[in-house]
Amino acid sequence: MPLLYFLAPLGAVLIWSGNMTINQLTVGTIAPSSIAFLRWVLALAVLTPFVLPSAWQHRGVILRQWPKLAVLGLIGMALWQGLAYVAAETTSATNMGILAAMVPLLTVLLSALILREAPSLGGSLGGIVALLGVSVLLGRGNPLSLLQLEVALGDLLMVIAATCYALYGVMLKRWPLDLPPWVVLYVQVGFAVLFLLPGYLLGPMTPVDSHNVWLILYAGIPASIITTFLWMRAIRQIGASQASIFINLMPLFSALIAMAFLNERIALFHLTGGVLVLAGVIMAQTLTRPLVRKSAPSS
Questions:
Q1: Is the distance from CB of 203 to CB of 33 less than 8 angstroms?
Q2: What is the reported pTM?
Q3: How sure is the predictor about 299, in pLDDT bands with cuts at 50, 70 and 90?
Q4: Distant-in-sequence, close-in-space partners of 157: CB < 8 Å, separation ≥ 6
Q5: Cα–Cα distance, 268 to 145 (Å, whole number)
């Protein structure tokens, strides 16, 4: 498998790592219903001049495939990040990181159930090793300390959000759409705006000002347009299960971002957890043989 195929999921996860910080910065600055809606409105406005002509040319396929595109827009855009914004109000960034790290293992499980894909040896072992690395990172060297975290409504919402995004990756693989990738993204964004509109109208409409406009810009362009395109490309190139394992790099990337921009020091547990996460990712990408081999039919 060409190494260039790994650039798409790496780029998406790097931008998401920055967006995890954005989620926390939105608390008290802009209502979850406002930023969840406005980010996709901004994405739709940016994409329209470039993608609308192509979408119009493919309107026949879009009309036939709109139920699938609507489901993808709901679970992969409206719910995944929309729920994360709400969760940030009642849970910590640590909890959110732990639960977001469930996506790879959930993807393997859903792929086995929906796509009938036998989990690979690397995907299974790598997922476990990477999740252990995430636990070391978030538990600050003591994974057992995570058991003492209180369960909040935000934790439940992040479980639902992680399940939605795992399902999104699986259904992208399950439903190969005969449309250009940018058109697929554009139509999904349009449906996400429609799904989030009622919550925006009913919720507190936070006015856009100098304190929150940069949060919307980051969430609307890099964290919405660029990451979604990169993720769809990654799933097409290496598959949902292998792409999702890169999500375990989010805590490592977040620590590096904090070291670079917030002058935070890297401790031993950061290095230990980072090595385990990287080892898990490498295992998932290299040990691709099925975990269980089918027995040959007897002659």
A1: yes
A2: 0.77
A3: very low
A4: 83, 84, 86, 87, 90, 91
A5: 17
